[in-house]
User: Fold this.
Amino acid sequence: MKIHNPKSLEEAVQLKKSYPEAVYFAGGTYVYSLGHDFADAIDISRVVRNEIYHTMNHVHIGAMATLEKILLSELSPLILRNGAKLCPSLQQRSAATIGGNIAQRRDDGYLTAAVLASEPVIVLMTENGRLEVSADDYMAGKYDGLILEFIFRKNLKGDVKRIGRTSHMHMAVSGAECNGVYAYTASSSGFAKGGKDSWQDIAFESDSLGSADYKRYLLSVMF
Amino acid sequence: MEIRCKLNGRNAILKGREDERLRNVLYRYGCTSVRDSDDAEGFTGSDTIIFNGSLMYSNLIPLCRAENAEILTAESLMNGREINDVQEAMIAAGVVQSAYNSPAMALVLTYLLRIKPEADKNDVRRFLSGMFIRDAGYENFYLAVKLVQEKRKYGSYRSEIAPSFRPELSVIGKPSGKIDGKALVSGEKLFVEDRVTPDSYVLHVLRSPFAHAWVRSIDTSKAEALDGVEAVYTAFNIPDVYYMQAGQGNPEPSPYDRKLINRKVRHQGDRVAAIVACDEETAMKAASLIDVVYEPLEPVLSVEDAMAEGAPLVHNGVVEYVSGAPENLDEYNKSADRNEEKVIYQFPLHGDIHKNIAAAAHGGIGDVEKGFAEADAIVDETYRTSQPQCTPLEPHVCFGHIENGRLVLNASTQVPYHVRRIVARVCQIPEHKVHVIKEKVGGGYGSKQDILVEDLLGFCVWKTGKPIYYRNTRAEEFYANSTRHPMRIRVKMGGKRDGTITAIYMDVRANTGPYGNHCLTVPMNASSKTLPLFKVDNMYYDLITYYTNCPPAGAYQGYGAPKGYFAIGSALGELAMKLGIDPLEMAKKNMVEEGYMLEILRGLGEGREGAVVPVGSCGLAQALDKGAEMIGWGHKEESEDPDWKIGKGFAMIQQGSGLPGLDHSNCQVKLLTDGTFVVLSGGADLGTGLDTISAKCVSEILKVPMENVSVVSGDTDSCLFDTGAYASSGTYFSANASLNAAKDLKKKMLQEAALQLNENEEDLELRSPGLIYSTKTKRVLSYYELSHTATSGSGRGALIGTGSFTTPNFAIPYGAHFAQVAVNVKTGEIKVQKFYALQDAGTPINPELAMCQMYGAVMKSIGHTLYEDLALDKDGRCLTTTFTDYGVPMIQEAPEDFRSVLIDINDEYGPFGAKSISEIACNGAAPAIAMAIADATGVWVRSWPITGEKILRELGRF
Ligand SMILES: Cc1cc2nc3c(=O)[nH]c(=O)nc-3n(C[C@H](O)[C@H](O)[C@H](O)COP(=O)(O)OP(=O)(O)OC[C@H]3O[C@@H](n4cnc5c(N)ncnc54)[C@H](O)[C@@H]3O)c2cc1C
Ligand code: FES
Assistant:
């Protein structure tokens, strides 16, 4: 793997343009772990921020903030702290970033449901400059780019749940509720957001957690 | 590239590729405590370091990110050769066992206590959340932290580490720490990988993508032409030698049904070619250049598939018998495919490969039909178990080289002498040409009883003359290693209203996978370790083991017993429920007690008639009573949340202590010239403390402190033969040999002292610390003086004690396990709230290690019961090749209230009254949890893993 070290956000994005197959190297818990073999990686640790801070009505979380930092920070929205807690290993949490987690649009993601339900704005750096997009649009794949930060509304209320066979297995279903908005994920199947019954939009598939019927049932009784 | 960093407080320059994993760089730099157990999956934590103040997996950090970093590895814990207080406490608490990741654990806990000296259980759980422990369980890490806190506060430990036994003895039965604990916890170079020389080649195995196929042709020319490739072996250029890979006593009760590489591949991952090359990269490139033409065949993927009319045959070669061939063998072989590998039975195992049957057995006592006719109620249910993997933190690994014309193997094995015999066989050389050195074993749990890598590695070294290293990837561990035999067990049990069991019938159908390793012995244990627990007049079992194209099965702690117990324990619970009586009362009414004649054993010999013996020492009743009291048996717990239902269950259990009549152990104890001792034990310590037991035997008999004793074990050149560490034989067999050697040396020392002192032997005795004392003349001779004179120019020679141990007597450990489980009847979530393991291990020689063995074994079986699942697709390809997909239990899965209790019983035959401890501890969780779930929900789940989905389906939730 060739690791590129951009000195600016613009350079990072340019590198991605030059090497379309390259991945951004944030915490590396996905790109640098077993089974992944990328020819080029762009190390964004020096150019993307990891701060968590408050402005008047919002909470800003840098994309390089690790799940452990989010979990420990009193400034983080509670729903996101609870989402970070779903990552069961301290070592994983100490490396894995929110940007890396959301960028993967995982249907077994620790933060997927929490982020969808809490509806932050996602700030991206693209070839055409900075762009602010909704989490919905980002997760739907309408936009790509280097995630710089997440901007949440303050005082979000809500909860996250995940059911897997063990604390560490990928295969799981999860759900989040935030100020009346619901989001759900089901491994090997997908994710959905909307009302309490929005889980119905997921095309359930069986995997080692259990059958499609079981997963559908679990989400139907989650809240 | 070169990067500068601060490593363990000192400036360091680390060199490597910019994208190289920091773990590999650190290991090369000399930080050998930083190990890898998962090929950089980021799961097990053996590679944990403190990186800029955070706990990190060093495998997931590229070297370039370490520029200017502050890095701490476990090497930072040492002060010269002194370990720190956390490491000391870990040894004291008994958690340093196979110890592959003990240094990393010590680093994590040291760091926790540095940032939070008053850390509580929740903090420990948080810090260990990314560490996988398979050997000793998680429980005593809490104790280790507590001990450190106490010592820092009060200057000494205040908590009881473990109970002590036998006050009349000085070291036996007392928690003393392992003699190799310090070396292990400090990260010394003790494992096979630490022996690999820089000039070493690697062995890479090209494996079959098909579960069942013919290798019609194979072209290795391009691979052989590649620079750096030393040799390529295939089915077409290996010797025509049949053998099998189970490390069992010779002649083995497993058929010789394979060669080093077979022409017909019988599971995904079966060997197709062996490539010896200068490095892994070259070997992988070479593998990609090998052209193989396969002819795929329909795979057989379950017992049902194997039994089906017209099923494809996993083996259809010529069958031979070394002894006891049936008369119609020529006729039988007429339909054999002569291109296939033969199947050679050492003696009849009642196999019939034309029906995919590798082995069969049956037997019993009384008249089961009569028994069922007398019953007021009968249960007749079928229980299924899955294919759990041992998952040792150190995968299968071997390093070999040629020295002085001999093949030297550094092995991580439970059976060094079987490795020597089998490697000599496949290399077609005599045993004296092979030297096996058992290194520290980073977890075996049965899978290293099988010679799964040493055979091929040894052959390649012998043929090429090169030093060669081989290590299974974690994925290979899952699909090309040995696992528990999946089983389908039908139990029919009849009982009367008063709780008397009138008859038990067990129909065991086992799946041995592609080869017949342990095809008789492991499945036999499903009956042979369960039925003898019952005082029932009518009992019968049928056993058939089938060949399939699933990943290979083999030995796993407990052999077939955990599966047999799941079936028979559940059936007992179901019968009691049907009869409306308390299952505990029913168990007590039908359990054996001391002196009861075990007629059932006659039909349970493994391939021969078994010896009938009475039940010896037996703590079963105490275990059941005490466990029932601890868990509040009979008292229904209610949860505040109506969705959570709570239930209780138990299992009564037993195992064996080695194989009387088959196992054999030897030991020598040498008196050195300064009066200290070296023990040369054939026994293979797997981290469970066998070496410590040997040292304790010498210390106790020869009345010296344990510090005066060193132990060398499992080295086939220096030590005498031992059948190996399996079937719970270590304490009973190997330690009895150590005890006998110590007694022999004592006798010789007294004889020699009598000559030196010119006194009668009867007037002399050994006294602590290391003196010979004359009760008549009050004269004293130190061991130093004794040895010095004996080995002087006019001496009579060095003093060496030799002991061997064989026995017809059984030393059966008994126990009872109790579980309290909460089940969410809305979501199917299952929590093991309480687990109490109570066991009669005779005299627990190392009580703290024994308790951790129990915690570890119970965690393994909680894993088998609730989580672990080796899944195959419809073509027999393994879908679960990582820890995350497979589902081992981590600290989050450990019971909230978890206790090991040792029942105080003295055995007649065990060394100082000891019996075995760990295998039996795998037997209780499945039946106890299944019963607790049934108690909570009314649902009996009869297959592993017991999942929420299975419960909710039975409850009709969806
Ligand atoms: C054994 C194991 C099991 C795991 N199981 C799960 C699981 O079940 N669920 C789960 O959610 N996570 C799981 N993870 C963690 C997983 O890797 C996370 O999703 C993590 O948050 C990824 O973050 P990272 O910083 O490590 O990403 P990286 O590995 O650095 O990058 C991951 C991906 O995100 C992209 N990316 C990273 N940062 C940005 C950015 N700022 N902008 C745009 N793209 C970016 C990269 O291009 C790459 O494709 C597991 C990790 C391990 C080691
Ligand atoms: S990534 Fe942790 S031991 Fe391999």
